[in-house]
Amino acid sequence: MPSTEAAANELQDRATLWSVGEIPASDVVSAACDALVAGLDSPGLRVLAACTRAEADYDVHDLLPVALDELGIIFYPVASEAGQEAAARALARRMLAGKLTPWELTFRIHQRYGHELPLTERLAELDDEYAILEDDDRAVAQVNAEVTDEARRLAASPYTSTAPRTRRADAYGPTREFPLNRLQFP
């Protein structure tokens, strides 16, 4: 069974990837279920985990921010640079876990952000290199190794950002917190 921290990180990654259209809403629901099994708990997380696959596409949009807020997990705004960086890091972790090939990582990063996101500039350049490679297995292996090194660099970054964020609860004043399954009441 994964630790609560690992489950929280995976839930955050899936939330980020869902918000940029990389994965379906049902993957977020699966991560919510895994988080409950790992020991995370909040009312919103339970509601999110209870969604069926059919409901997920309609309900995750409303339920996910609430569940993450209750757990103290950051949900990045899609268009923000912090959100783009979080998505790039999540994609890098997926590549390192064997869910994407090095070329798929560079292609997705390059397609989504071009050369505009400073954090992923090197991956975009490596995608350009893939485009000009011929049938030289040695050259492909070298670029794959560089992509893997860059993915490790991205994945080593912390899950949280120093960028300010707006939480739904902040708009309504003080509220109860549910940071990683520790209920704190005023």
Could you characterize the architecture of this molecule?
The protein has helices spanning 4-19, 25-38, 43-49, 53-71, 81-96, 102-113, 121-132, 137-155. The protein is mainly α and 186 residues long. The chain starts with a helix and ends in a 31-residue tail after the last helix.
Give the overall form: elongated
For the terminal residues, how far apart are their CA atoms? 32 Å
> How helix-rich are the residues, as a percent range?
55-70%
Radius of gyration: 18 Å
Low-confidence stretches: 161-186
Pattern of helices and strands: HHHHHHHH
Number of strands: 0
Sheet having the most strands: none
Helix/strand class: mainly alpha
Beta strand %: under 5%
Mean pLDDT: 84
Number of helices: 8
Q: TL;DR?
A:
The protein has helices at residues 4-19, 25-38, 43-49, 53-71, 81-96, 102-113, 121-132, 137-155. The chain has 186 residues and is mainly alpha-helical.
